[in-house]
Amino acid sequence: MSSLLLLNLFLAFAWCAAFGTFTLLSLLIGFVVGSAALWFTRPLYGDTGYFLHGGRMMRLCVFFVYELVVSSLRVVWDVLTPQVRSRPGILAVPIEAETDMEIMLLANLISLTPGTLSLDVSTDRKILYVHAMFIDDPATSVAEVKEGMERRLLEVMR
Predict the structure, then answer these.
(1) Is the N or C terminus of the chain more exposed, i.e. has fewer CB atoms within 10 Å?
(2) pLDDT of 51
(3) How many helices (H) and strands (E) does the chain have?
(4) How many CB atoms lie within 10 A of CB 12?
(5) Claim to verify: residue 77 and residue 146 sit in the same structural domain
(6) Residues 94, 142 within the same domain
(7) pTM of the entire structure?
(8) Alpha-carbon gap, residue 138 to 21, rounded angstroms
(9) Pair type for strands 127-132 and 89-94
(10) 61/136 same-domain check
(11) How many Cβ atoms sit within 10 Å of the Cβ of residue 93?
(12) 83, 109: one domain
């Protein structure tokens, strides 16, 4: 774990202690304030990827929440309307994720998104099989997984 991350966590807990409220919101505010303080003092730490890495993590989180909302609405719309728009199928997604952690996180992020479910990984760990509820064009669906979830996850992990 990065020493700047540990320092940022310490600043977040110090924020909570200073205000006497140890809630998740208070901890989050303390973390943001601590990040800002560390960002302003970044010349003291030399060249570090801590802030670049944090930005990538935020991009992944925002992307995932967006996908979560959009796919939830799409599934709800399909369930509540009389016309069936779903075109389910299984996709073979070639993946660039190599480590167990990268593959596990990718599979779980896909499974947490409504309308998709990670089924299996090939024995050579190069293909992730995904069941999707809405497949209009298989090539487009594979590209959406690779260019969306996988690319952003690998930016954070590497």
Answers:
(1) N
(2) 80
(3) 6, 3
(4) 20
(5) yes
(6) yes
(7) 0.77
(8) 50
(9) antiparallel
(10) yes
(11) 23
(12) yes
With beta carbons less than 8 A apart as the criterion, state whether 105 and 61 touch: no
End-to-end CA distance of the chain: 14
**Do 18 and 75 lie in a common domain?**
no
CA gap 34, 11 in Å, rounded: 5
Helix (H, G, I), strand (E, B) or coil at 136: coil
The residue segments making up the domain with residue 97 are 50-157
Give 140's Cβ-side CA count (13 Å radius).
4
61 shares a domain with 33: no
Q: Say if CB 91 and CB 116 are below 8 A apart.
A: no
Residue 81 and residue 62 share a domain: yes
Domains in the chain, number = 2
Mind listing the pLDDT tens digit for each residue in 116-136?
Answer: 999 999 999 999 999 999 999
The CA R_g of the chain, rounded to the nearest whole Å, is 20
Q: Where are the beta strands (DSSP E) in 11-143?
A: 89-94, 116-121, 127-132
Per-residue pLDDT tens listing for the chain (158 residues)? 478 888 999 999 999 999 999 999 999 999 999 989 998 898 888 777 788 787 888 899 999 999 999 999 999 999 999 998 899 999 999 999 999 999 999 999 999 999 999 999 999 999 999 999 999 999 999 999 999 999 999 999 88
